[in-house]
Amino acid sequence: MRERADVTTPHRIVFANEKGGTGKSTTAVHVAVALAYQGAKVAALDLDTRQATFFRYCENRADTQKRRNTQLPGPVFDRCHGDTIEALEEEAARIGEGADFIVFDTPGRDDPFARHVAASADTLVTPMNDSFVDFDLIGQVDAETFKVRKLSFYAELIWEARIKRSRAQIDQNKREMDWVVVRNRTGYADARNQRRIDQALTELSKRVGFRPVQGMSERVIYRELFPSGLTLLDKGHLGELGTSHLVARQELRNLVQNLRLPMPGKPEAGEPVRPVTKPVKEPA
């Protein structure tokens, strides 16, 4: 596990993929809640001003907390209001003050704010489905051999950002970026397709330097949990879970572990969990 390079600055976890439908926001919410359950102070900023799935999920969670008169661990959260990079950074500094982690959820499209936070990530998480349609975001393959022919624009963008970060790491003591490609919804891919994607990801990861890890399988329960804002980690609030749900919970725990995040010290025994809150208000 990596050491925390700067305890005064929250570790930036950026969930980014220019293609929608990869489970990005659902994964981001579950990771943020999982970190809060482990005692970390988590902030979150949703940069998708149109759909705002992450923000809405957390709003639903806060409403459930109030309705059931209970406390649920989760992030302090808000949606992006600024229209410049400088304003974005001011919002991130405000909401991330005192946090161990700040999670950014980005739109499923090309977006200047998404590019900025992706390039400044300490941990960049790119969820993808096990499909060559999704793989095309990071690399193009030969139609006959399925060998990687070239990097995509997005992969080149992250590659260049990592090079700049490596230089800054020496000059300004910056953290090194860890790029993690998370394979979601693998249950829908057939065995031959999975083998081909395995090979292509392994080949490309050696060229670009990301780490492929297993993510969250396609399950109806993720869509069912959205209105309440609950997650699979909220024991005691979900009723009786089936075997597949327990397997899904373990998948999530494995994912968080494989992200290799620099966790702060565990809270003292008896210390209350940090409840999810309503969005922070704009300063007067």
UniProtKB/TrEMBL annotation:
Give the residues annotated as coiled coil: none
Species of origin reads: Aurantiacibacter sediminis
Sorted alphabetically, which InterPro entries does this protein's record hold?
A: DNA_Partitioning_ATPase, MipZ, P-loop_NTPase
What protein name does the entry list?
Answer: AAA family ATPase
Q: Which SUPFAM superfamilies does this entry report, sorted A to Z? A: P-loop containing nucleoside triphosphate hydrolases
TM segments?
A: none
Give the domain of life.
Bacteria
Matching Gene3D superfamilies? P-loop containing nucleotide triphosphate hydrolases
Stretch list, region Disordered: 261-284
The record, for Pfam families, names:
MipZ
